Amino acid sequence: MTPAARIQAAIDLLDAVIVAARGQGASADRIAADWFRTRRFVGSKDRRAIRELVWHAIRVCGDIPDNGRVAMLRVAADDPDIAALFDGSHYGPAAIAPDEVPAIGGIAPDWLIAALTQSGLDAADLSALMTRAPLDIRANRLRTTRDDLLAQLPVVAEPGPAPDALRLPAGTQAERWSAFEQGLFEVQDAGSQIACGVIAAQPGETVVDLCAGAGGKTLSLAAAMANEGRLIACDIDRARLSRLPGRAARAGATVETRLLDGGREMQALRDLTGQADAVLVDAPCTGTGTWRRNPEARWRLSPAAIARYARTQAQVLDLAVPLVRPGGRITFITCSLLDAEGADAIGAFLARHRDWQAVPVEAPIGRPRGAGWRLTPGHDDTDGFFFANLVAP
Question: What DSSP string describes 325-388?
Answer without folding.
Answer: EEEEEEEEEES---GGGTHHHHHHHHHH-TT-EEE----SS-EEETTEEEE-HHHHSS--EEEE
